[in-house]
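User: My instructor asked us to take a sequence, write out its structure as tokens, and then describe one feature of it. I'm not sure where to start. Here is the sequence I was given:
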Amino acid sequence: MWGYGWGGGWMIPLMGVSAVLWWVLVVAIVVGVVRWLRVAPGGATPAGPGPRAEAREILDRRFAQGEIDADEYAERRRVLSGG
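Assistant: Let's start with the prediction itself. The structure tokens for your sequence are:
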């Protein structure tokens, strides 16, 4: 009988390990692509402009509505820009 000698016993475990490694690779690629698509170059996600831009919009709106004066607006804008 050919193929049932000493060397055939390693085939089944090798196939199982390679199947597991294949699915790990597939999942890693899918996760990487999803993360790559979610994060824009500036760190913002497609769902929104990011926390700094959102905070700047709120600050602009508060200044436009007269809730804060020009000095406070300038100071907070400087803090938000990191300067």
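For the description part of your assignment, you could build on this observation: Residues 1-38 form one domain. Try explaining in your own words what that tells you about the chain.
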